[in-house]
Amino acid sequence: MIWRLVLASIRQRPARSLLLLFGYALGVGVTIALLSIGGALVTQARDQTLIGGGDLVVLPAGIDLETLKTGAVSSMFFSIEPAPFLYREVLSGPRFEDRVTAAAPWIDDELLYLEIDGDLIPISAGANIPSLAAALGVAPDLVAGDWRDLPIDTRWRAPTDAELYASLDRLHVPEGAAAGDSTWAEWHYFNVLLPDDAGWLYLTYMIAGEVPDGRWGGRLLATLVEPGVGERAFVFEVPADEVVFVAGQPDLSIAGSSVTIGSDGVYHLEALIPSEGSGDPLRVDLSVAAASRRYLPPLDIGGAALTSGYTVPMLDGRSTGQICVGTRCRNLEEAGTYHDHNWGTWSEVTWNWGQATVGEYSVLYGGVAKSGQAEGAHFLYVADSDGFAGVYPIRAIRTQWRDDPLKASTPHSISVIAGSGRDSLALEIDVLHARATALPAGADTSPALFYQMRGRATLSGRLSDTPASGMGLGFFETWAQAPSSTRASAPPPDPSQSR
User: Fold this and answer.
1) How much is the pTM?
2) What band does 334 get if pLDDT is binned at 50, 70 and 90?
3) Whole-angstrom Cα distance, residue 83 to residue 336?
4) 218 versus 408: which is more confidently predicted?
């Protein structure tokens, strides 16, 4: 009966019947094609050969594997900025050497356009590091030519100490809005412990101002703290023609005082800085070498609010040489040393910062904020004998204050709470020494006090569900609004005393 109705309908309206049949067939065909493509993508996503031969694939944030494979517009120009760090310190580092056989960077089938005689010719190109691709078992079949690592490949996967520190510590020239900002500053900072815990030295080599426009200069800063002697500050400012540096390189010379990296990866520090008062000058002649490769790669920590870059080439360094004030010299042998490097614009910017060696761990925390804007993200970074151990968002930084009748309030203790769940850490700091510098009020801000502190730190919590603890000494910095009783009597401001 149904077939009779169908045939009768076709005889009466043949054109309409054929159109409906074609429409149904087209819909069914498209559905079958989409299901086939989806099934192929799932199969390819599980195919190790097609994803570079690995069991684990690390992708740029916000991009999935299917997007990369289909070559969508959103997959163009992607990058993983800390890729060298991830490769050296995580995927091929000692922590997972019993679980990771090989790892390799991989760019496959990128669509490029080559211009020849005014015509754009589409080509497909890929890239990898030959030795690492071979170790992963996905080396291409070589038809002709030579396929081996170039020097740049070797520097990427296994840099020498000199190459590593040169890449971490390179100097910058401000760009964009920062180029015309007179508060631009960049500096190498070293913190050296004196023998037998008999004090410490803050040493800064700084360039600042509108560098591209020629309105800038150099500054040498130092603070020497010794028991029984107290604190002594040393400052020396020079014009731009006495500063020598090359963008992209780490070496910096300011009126003959210099930071250089030797071919062995050892830093050489030379400085001659007059006393801020009428005392003897400070003379520094040190060699600084890493005791272990514990470092933080270059990061943008300012976000959209401000330009602020930060790296720590040496969380765990050792200094050998001499520090002299006048004719009185102190010899150093393997003295504990910390080195970091900052760059950015610093108008109405404050920060929390601290670093300590607590048992087997090197711990670093920090974050910046600009006045009148939401406080930026803060992080806690942990390294141990295997290198990078983890980085965690900070949930709270709490400072307890003590009243000092001579200096107004000073920090008494600091609590840093980071991570959650199986990665929960707490850093408790007892402040042993605090130095306050008064900074002036801006157009829309109150005067501020900048604190540099020495303290005893205690780490507790869990790293990947493993108990983590330790105690040790470290250095810490924070800011506070100056109390009204301090504003009128504060000493002349000197923002350069910040690191």
Assistant:
1) 0.81
2) very high
3) 30
4) 218
Helix, strand and coil content of the chain, in percent to the nearest 5, comes to 20, 50, 30
- Helix 2-12 with 14-45: angle, nearest 10 deg: 110
Contacts of 5 (CB under 8 A, 6+ apart): none
Residue 348 CA to residue 4 CA, distance in Å, equals: 87
Q: How far is CA 341 from CA 298, 418, 443, 466, in A?
A: 9, 24, 29, 32
Cite the DSSP H helix spans in 384-498.
484-487
Torsion of CA 139, 52, 81, 65, to 10 degrees: 160
CA distance 249 to 261: 10
CA dist 43 → 40, 67, 190, 216, 391 (Å): 5, 15, 53, 59, 34
Residues 6+ apart with CB under 8 A from 184: 174, 178, 208, 209, 210, 211, 216, 307, 343, 344, 345, 346
What the block records as the tokens of 256 is 């003959």
Count the Cβ atoms, other than its own, within 10 Å of residue 380: 27
The alpha carbon of residue 226 and the mean position of all alpha carbons in its chain are separated, in whole angstroms, by: 32
CB 306 within 8 A of CB 183: no
Burial of 333 (0-12, 13-18, 19+ CB in 10 A): exposed
Q: Which has the higher per-residue pLDDT, 187 or 401? A: 187
Residue 370 pLDDT grade (very low, low, confident, very high; cuts 50, 70, 90)? confident
Res. 108: pLDDT tops 70: no
Residues β-bridged to residue 282: 273, 325
Domains plus CATH for the chain? Answer: 106-150 (no CATH), 159-345 (2.40.370.10), 348-499 (2.40.370.10)
The Cα-based distances of 194 to 221, 321, 499 in angstroms read 18, 11, 19
Across residues 264-293, what is the average pLDDT?
93
Strands (E), 346-439: 349-358, 361-370, 379-384, 387-404, 408-420, 423-439
Strand partners, 396: 417
Neighbouring CB atoms inside 10 A of 196's CB total: 7
Dihedral (CA of 62, 368, 474, 343) sign: positive
Please tell me the predicted confidence (pLDDT) of residue 213: 79
Is beta strand 349-358 parallel, antiparallel or unpaired with respect to 257-261?
Answer: unpaired
Band of pLDDT at residue 492, cut at 50, 70 and 90: very low
DSSP E strand stretches across 46-153 = 106-116, 119-128
